[in-house]
Amino acid sequence: MPTYRIHFSGQVQGVGFRATCRRLARTLPALAGQVCNLADGRVRLIVRGPKEDVADLVGRLHEAFPAEIRKVEQVELAAGDDPLPEGLHGGEISHGG
Predict the structure, then answer these.
(1) Which residue among 37, 42, 44, 60 is the active-site one?
(2) Rounded to two decimals, what is the model's pTM?
(3) pLDDT over threshold 80, residue 88
(4) Is residue 93 part of a domain?
């Protein structure tokens, strides 16, 4: 299953973005990952799952935060670069660091 690193830029900290990300991901049971704030003001989401479900999650985040998200950078990680723990289950997005 592919893993993606997604950076969200804009006013995405202090607005419930991470909690909303976790809540929305629970409705997509094939996804698992971690979300965290970065020191530069961005939010990083590392997510494993089908490309279509990842796109659905990103689209729902855009709908939930249309004014806050200014830019999204998404990269598919190489198989050996997946930093997520093996034990993450579908529909689980944990707080990452």
Answers:
(1) 37
(2) 0.90
(3) no
(4) no
